[in-house]
Amino acid sequence: MPSPLGLAVPVDLPEVELRVLELEGVVFRCGPSWASVAEVDGPGLRLRSLGALLPPGVAVARGAAAWVWGARGRCPDLVEACVDIDRRPGLQLSGVRISEVVVEEGDLVRHGPALVTSVRRTTLDLLRGESWSLEDVEVVRRLITDHALDPAALRAVLTARRRLPHKRRAITRLDAVRARLSPR
Asked: Which pLDDT value is given to residue 43?
């Protein structure tokens, strides 16, 4: 049943059989894949489950990266990914949105062959994103607190970049999240 990644992916067994195994307590859902209950659910396993969907050099990003880092309870149905603008993958994948972005030193973390945006980059990308719901606020708050990010350092990164799309939006959102972090 396990794939070479240590995950039971839907191509290994029919979906119905995997759901039966889940009910029997043998496997659990891990993003788009299934894993043995003997596996430890954490960033490495979550990244491998998503990395299996992506070609080499493409990194899990935004909401899916927040799930990898433990700040979201479940993996988004649409997996967002990114690739360095110089690589231009030129491909379309079902259930995956790939953005071409500028990747700087320290923006990506590798786990085996899979890549994910760093906690800092994930947080900055979410702050700059189109949507901003109460769930997004909580996800950013969890990324900051669970991974000991310094909100002042995040703000400094945002203000230091000259041509960063949606920079003002991100600073306003970060300031609102910072206010929620402050002791009352």
From this structure: 94
